[in-house]
Amino acid sequence: MKLKSMFLHGFKSFARPTRLNFADGITVIVGPNGGGKSNIVDAVRWVFGEQSMKQLRADEKSDVIFAGSASQPAAQSAYVELVFENENETISVARQLTADGKNTYFLNGQPARLKDIREKFEGTGIGVEFYSIVGQGQIERIISSSPEELRVLLEEAADIHVYKERKKEALENLERVQNNLLRVSDVINELDRQRKSLYLKAKRAERYKEYSQKLAENKRIYYGNILKRETRRLNYLNEELSKTFEKIKQLQKDLVEVETNWSTLKAEFASVDKEIENFTNLLEDYKRRQTTLSELREMYNKRLSEREGKYVETTTKLDSIQERIAQIEKRISELSLILKGLIEEISQKEAELSQIEKQRDEILSKYTEKEKQFLGIREKLEALHKERISLEGELSRIEESVEDLSKRISIIDSQLDVKVSRLSRLQTELSLLLEKLKNAGDKEAQLVKELQTIRERIDELTSEKRAAEDELENVRRTLRLLDEEEARIKQRIESYEGYTKAVRAIFAKKAEGYFENVHDVVANLISFPSEYAKAVEVLLGGAVQNVVVEASNTAKEVIEWLNREKIGRVTFLPLDLIESHFSGLRDVESHKGFVGYAAQIVRVPEKYAVLPGFLFGNDIIVRTLEDAIDIKKKYKVRCRIVTLNGELIGQHGSITGGEVETERSDTLVRRKLRLAEISEQRVQLLSHEKQLQQKLSKIQEEVQALYGQEKIAERELTNVIAEGSSTKRMVEELSKTAQEMDQEISSLQQLKKNYHLRIEGMRARKDTILSRLDEISKEKENLELLMKEYDEKLAAERKTMEEILSKHSEVKTRLASLMETKLHYESELDKLKKDKEKLSEESLVLNNQARELEKEINKLKELLLENQRELEALRKESESLFEAMRLQRADKDQKLATLAQLEEKMQKMKEERERLRDQQHQLELTIQEVKSKIEQCFTQVDPQEVENVEEIDNETLELVKKEMEDLETKLKYLGPVDLTSIQEYEDVEKKYNELVIQKKDLEDAKAKILELIEKTDEEARNKFLDVYERVNANFNKFISILFPGAEGEIRLQSGKDLLETGIELSVRKPGRKVQKLQLLSGGEKALVSIALIFALLEIKPSPFYLLDEVDAPLDDFSAERLKNLLEISSSKTQFIVITHNKVIMEAAKMLHGVTMVDGVSCVVPVELETVVN
C-alpha cells in the first residue's frame, strides 16, 4: 500500500485547493518556519480520527477550518483527502468538517464511520502515533514512553490485534454464555420453586379429579337407585291421590243432601234463630273484646316484667359503680398522703446529696492539688535518677573512649610510617607504565582506521547485495505472478469461460467425443499485433463467440441438439458456406491516417483463410477519429471504419465511442495476445534473474574476502586493545592506589589530630559529670523526704474521700429508688382519677336510665289496673246474656235436638271431608316432595346415564351414600383446586428438564470457550515472542549502525504475563555499562527512536512514515547515517520527511516547498529526477 496524494481545502492555513503528490520512495517537504509544513502532519492525523486537540495543535474542533486572512475570506469547511494505492485497488479516505459543526468521514467517496476506516487500515501501522507518524518534539516520546505504550508498537507489528479481537470475541461470547448460564440458573431455580409449588397443587388437583370421578360414579349409583325408587313411589301416590279425590267427590254429594234437610228445619225456627243469633253475635263481640283485653294484659305484664328486670339490673350496676368510686376516692386519698411523704423525703435526700457532693468536690480539689504536687516531686526524682544513671554511663564510656583513643593514636603512628614508604614506590612504577600506554594507543588508532575502511566496504557491498536480493525477489515474484496468470488464462480458454452457456455446452459435448467437425470459436482462431487489439475487438463485437464448423450439416446437427436441450442460441460459421467480402479500397490506402485492412491485419491458420474476409470485409483501421470522419466524408466508403483507440463509424455513418474507467485485460479477444506477452516477459525476466544471481555471487565472494581481512585486523586490534586496556587498567589502578594512599596518609594525620582533641574534650566532660553527680545526690535526698511527707497526707485524705464517695453512692441510690417509686404512684394516681371520671359519667347515664324505667313501670301498672276493671264488667254482661238465651230455647228442645243431630251428622261428614282433603293435601305434598327429589336427582345425574344402573339394597345404598358424603368431605377439605395446575406442572416440569439440558450445554460451551481463550493466548504469546526476538535483533543491528560498536536490547519486564508485560529499551556504548536512556543527549535519543522504528519496519512496514523534523537534534554526521537508512528502507516503504537539513534533502525523489503568502500556505512541487534528466 502506497500513499499517492493528499488533497487539502480550507484546512488550517491551506485555504485554497491544494494537492500534494508523493513519490514511491522519499518525499521531502521543506520551507521556512511558520509556512504550514506541520499542518500536513495534522491533516493526516485529523483524517484518521485524531480526537486530541493538543495533538492537532488546536483549542477547539472548529480551529482546523481556515479562519481567513487579509486577502482570503474564511473557509466554510475543512476538507482533507488521502489517496492510497494497494496493488490494483485505489483507496481514498477523507474527512470534512463544516462551519456548523457537521463532521463526515468518507471511504472511497462514500460516507462511512471512523470505525470502518480503522478496520480497513487495521494492522498496517497507520494511525499508531509513535509508529507511522512522528511529529515535532515527539521523537523523544518513544524513549520516554511507558513500557505498556512501547509494547503497543510490537503488538502492531506482530498483528496481535487479531488474537486480541479473537480473545475479545471469545470473552464476549464467554460473558454471554456466563450471563445466559446465570439467567438459565435463575430460571431453573425459579422453575424449581414453581415446580415444587405446582407439584402440591397438581397432586391436590389429581386427588380432586380422582375423588370427583369416584363421587360421580357413586352419585350415579346412589341417585340412580333413588330415582328408580322415587319414581315407583310417585306412581303409587298418584293412584292414592285419585282414589282420595273420588271419595271426596262422593262425600260432598251426601253432604249436600244432609245440608238441604238441615236448611228446611232451620227455616222453621228462623225468627227464634234470628233472636238467638243476635244474642250470639253480641256474646261473640263480648268474647272478642275479652280476648283483646286479655292479650293487652299479657302484653302489659310482659313489658312490665322486662322493665322491672332492667330496672333491677340498672340499679344494681349503679350501686356497684358508686361502690367503685368510693374505693377510688379512698385510694386517691391514700396515694396523696404517700406522695406527700415521698416528696418530703426526696427533698431531704437531694439536699443531703448536694451537701455530700459539695464536700466531695472540696476534698477532691484539695486532693488533686496535693496529688499534682506529689506527682511533680516524683517526676523530678525520676528525672534526677535517670540523669544520674545517664551521667554514670557517660562517665564509664568516657574512660573507655580515652583508653581506646590512646591505643588508636599509637596504631596510626605505625601505619603512617608504612604508607609513606609505599607511596614512594608507587609513583616510580606509574611513570614506566604511562610510557608503555602511549605506544599502544598509536598502534590501536592505526588498526581502527584500517578496520573502519574494511567495514565501510562491507556495508556498501551488503547494501548492494540487499538491493540485488530485493530485486531478485521482485523478479521471482513477477515470474510467479506471470505463471499464475498464464495458467489462469489457459484455463479460461480451455473452459471457454466468459462465453455464453450454449457455446460452453457445445464444447463440453465436443470434449466427450461428439461434434468432431466443430472447430473452435472465432476468438481462439484469430491472432493480431497487440496495438490493434482494441480496434479488432470493437469490429468483432459479439462475433468473437461465433463457432466455426466444417460444413453446414455440422451446424444443422448442433442446432438440432440445441433445440432439443433448450440450452440457447449460437451463431455458426460453416466453412463450406461463408465467403470473403474483401476487395480493397485503393483510394483510401493513400490517406495519411490509413493503417490497414482488418482482414489483412488479422492472421488465421491457412485452413481458415476465408474467415478474415468474411468477418471484416473491407473494414478499415485508421489512427484517429478525425481520420475516420475524413475518410468517410471524402471517399463515401460503405464499410466500417475503426480507430486504434476503438472509436467506430458504422457503414451508414453512426459513430460509437467512449471509455470505461478500467479496461479489462482478459477479454475473449485479448487472451491469446496476453499469453504471447507473458512469454516475452518471462524470457526477459529469466535473463535478468541470471544476471542478478551472477552479481550476487561476485558480491558474496568479495564480502567473504573482506570478512577474512576484517577478522585479521580485529584479531590484531583485539590484542593491541587488550594489551593497552591491561596497561591502562594498571595505570588507572596504580594512579588510584597512589591517590588513595596519599588520601589515607592525610586522613590518618587528620584522624590523629582529632583523636587528641577528643581526649582533651572527654577529660573536661568527666570533671563536669562528677560535679553534677554530687549535686544530684543532694537534690534526691531532699525530694525523697518531701515525697514521704506528701504521701502520708494523701493517704489520710484518700480515706476521707472513699468514705464520702461511699455515702454519696448510697444517698444517690436511695434517691433514685424514691424517684422511681414517686413516678409509679403518680402514674397510678393519674389512672385512678381517669377511672373515677369515667365511672362518674357512667353513673350519671345509669341514673337517668333508672328514672326513665321507673316512670314506664308506674304507667304499665296503671294500664293493667284499668284492663282488670274492664274485664270484670264484660264477664258480668256475658252471664246476663247466657241466662236470656236459655229462657228462649226452653220450648224448642225437641226440634233443636233434631237440628243438633243433623248438625252433628253434617259435622262428621265435614270432618270426614276435611280428613280426606287433608289426606289429599298430604298426598299432594308427598307427591311434590317426591317430584322434588326426582328433580334433585336430575340435577345430580344425567337420566340417560342412570337408566342401566343396577338396583341395590338399602344397606348397600347407605354405604354408597356414606362413601359419597366422605368423598364430598374430602373434596371440601381439599379447598380451592386449580385443575389447570396439572397441565402447568407438566409444562413447567418439561421446561425445567429442557433448561437443565440447556444449562449442561452452556457449561460445555463455557469450557470450550475457556479452552479457546487459553489456546488463543498461547498462540498470541508465541507470535509476540517470535516478533519480539526478531525486532530485538533488528534493534541491536540498527543501534550498532547508528552508534558504531554499541549494543541495543529490548527487554521484557519480569514478573508479568507475556501478554501484558511492558518492554524497556537499553543501549550500551563501547567500553561502558548499560546507560539509562534518560541520560542520553537529544540527538542520541532521536537515533535510538529511529533505530526502533526501522527495526519495526524490518518486521512489518507501515505503508508510509511521516517524520516531522526528527533530524532536528542530529549533527551532519548523524544525519548522513539517517539518510543512508532512509535510502535503504525506501525500497520497502514510503517516507514523507519534513526537514531543514540539506543532507536529508539529498535523498528525496520528490521535493515540496511550502511557504506562507498573505496568510495562506502554498505548495511548489519539484521532481528531482526530472530536473536532473
TrEMBL record:
<dbReference type="GO" id="GO:0030261">
    <property type="term" value="P:chromosome condensation"/>
</dbReference>
<feature type="coiled-coil region">
    <location>
        <begin position="160"/>
        <end position="208"/>
    </location>
</feature>
<dbReference type="InterPro" id="IPR011890">
    <property type="entry name" value="SMC_prok"/>
</dbReference>
<keyword id="KW-0175">Coiled coil</keyword>
<dbReference type="InterPro" id="IPR036277">
    <property type="entry name" value="SMC_hinge_sf"/>
</dbReference>
<dbReference type="Pfam" id="PF06470">
    <property type="entry name" value="SMC_hinge"/>
</dbReference>
<dbReference type="GO" id="GO:0007062">
    <property type="term" value="P:sister chromatid cohesion"/>
</dbReference>
<protein>
    <recommendedName>
        <fullName>Chromosome partition protein Smc</fullName>
    </recommendedName>
</protein>
<comment type="function">
    <text>Required for chromosome condensation and partitioning.</text>
</comment>
<dbReference type="GO" id="GO:0003677">
    <property type="term" value="F:DNA binding"/>
</dbReference>
<keyword id="KW-0547">Nucleotide-binding</keyword>
<dbReference type="InterPro" id="IPR027417">
    <property type="entry name" value="P-loop_NTPase"/>
</dbReference>
<feature type="binding site">
    <location>
        <begin position="32"/>
        <end position="39"/>
    </location>
    <ligand>
        <name>ATP</name>
    </ligand>
</feature>
<dbReference type="GO" id="GO:0005694">
    <property type="term" value="C:chromosome"/>
</dbReference>
<comment type="similarity">
    <text>Belongs to the SMC family.</text>
</comment>
<dbReference type="GO" id="GO:0006260">
    <property type="term" value="P:DNA replication"/>
</dbReference>
<dbReference type="GO" id="GO:0005737">
    <property type="term" value="C:cytoplasm"/>
</dbReference>
<keyword id="KW-0238">DNA-binding</keyword>
<dbReference type="InterPro" id="IPR010935">
    <property type="entry name" value="SMC_hinge"/>
</dbReference>
<keyword id="KW-0963">Cytoplasm</keyword>
<dbReference type="InterPro" id="IPR003395">
    <property type="entry name" value="RecF/RecN/SMC_N"/>
</dbReference>
<dbReference type="Pfam" id="PF02463">
    <property type="entry name" value="SMC_N"/>
</dbReference>
<feature type="domain" description="SMC hinge">
    <location>
        <begin position="516"/>
        <end position="632"/>
    </location>
</feature>
<feature type="coiled-coil region">
    <location>
        <begin position="682"/>
        <end position="1022"/>
    </location>
</feature>
<feature type="coiled-coil region">
    <location>
        <begin position="234"/>
        <end position="492"/>
    </location>
</feature>
<dbReference type="GO" id="GO:0005524">
    <property type="term" value="F:ATP binding"/>
</dbReference>
<dbReference type="GO" id="GO:0016887">
    <property type="term" value="F:ATP hydrolysis activity"/>
</dbReference>
<dbReference type="InterPro" id="IPR024704">
    <property type="entry name" value="SMC"/>
</dbReference>
<dbReference type="GO" id="GO:0007059">
    <property type="term" value="P:chromosome segregation"/>
</dbReference>
<keyword id="KW-0067">ATP-binding</keyword>
<comment type="subunit">
    <text>Homodimer.</text>
</comment>
